[in-house]
Amino acid sequence: MDLQLTLVIAGLVVGVVVGLTGMGGGALMTPVLVIFFGIPPLAAVSSDLVVSAVMKPVGGLVHIRRGTVDLRLVGLLCLGSVPSAFCGVLVYRSLGNSEAVQQWTKTALGVALLVAATGLIVKAYLALVARGRRAAARARRAAGEVVPRPPMDEGDGVGTLRPVPTVIVGVVGGLIVGMTSVGSGSLIIIALLVLYPRLSAASLVGTDLVQAVPLVASAALGHLLFGDFQFALTTSLLVGCLPGVYLGARLSSAAPGGLVRRALALVLLASALKLLGASDPVMVVTLGVVVVAGPFVWMLARTRHGLPARPRLISQTLTSQRDSTILSGPPEKRPS
């Protein structure tokens, strides 16, 4: 099969996954290019960031329209991330393009993918906690208690603003994104969760996505000027990614998002181990342990938050629809 057509198909698949899960494409596209296509890491990072710079604003505008963005946090994060992302490209370029640098990039990318997989798990856990709270409130109402209905945004907001730590998070996140293309949708969202635990899941995702727009744009500009940008490679990826994101977004309401995210976390873990140079036996054992133990750990987490250990498919579908309404629907359509 022609290489360009294969790249278009790869871009389409990654775009669909991004549309389904809301996850940044850097955690998928860059390792796909490096592992399966043999693209040099610097070229893969450069092309992926340019593709992301085109895709990110679409999701950001959606969250701004829904009001799930804290612009104060966006400003503080961008204050640190935008210049550091550009500087990350310069630092990377100053190291040269030797085999040692390419190998170092693979290692850094592997670590970043581990963080991305952790970010997926954290997002899923946040959604689980929110469902547990709603289930507990419904049970109390059924028992005759008067329980105030939660607002559309269940969190209490940012609380006390922490400017200096927030800017530092932006600096570190921007530097990592500029050098690996991974982190805008994983590392920073975990840091925001630590700094602002009262921030709701919807605002957490929306704020992270909007701040990633100028961050990725800065990193992409740096790679266009000083990186290893390849026009033909990037064009092929865009041809597949753009319709893929649209298709994934259309399918997201019907697809089993939890199952997709679990499979994606497993893929990210496997990619990270591969880039970090793990042997085949180590990869098999590690992935086997995760596949076997993961469901039991998740069932324990569900029961801890008052949910059944294994939800029925119909109940899970209704819950996903209710979550989607809470995150995106207008106030007059909130579920009771």
SSE order, one letter for each helix or strand:
HHHHHHHHHHHH
- What is the number of strand segments? 0
Going by helix content, strand content and strand pairing, the class is mainly alpha
Largest sheet: none
Content of β-strand? under 5%
Short note summarizing the structure:
This protein has 336 residues and is mainly α.
Features:
336 residues, mainly alpha, globular, disordered C terminus
What would you note in describing this structure?
The protein has 336 residues and is mainly alpha-helical. Helices cover 77% and strands 0% of the residues. Helix 4 packs parallel to helix 8 (201-226) and helix 10 runs antiparallel to helix 11 (280-304).
Draw up the topology in text.
Blueprint: H1 3-21, H2 26-36, H3 41-66, H4 71-94, H5 99-142, H6 163-180, H7 187-195, H8 201-226, H9 231-251, H10 257-275, H11 280-304, H12 313-328
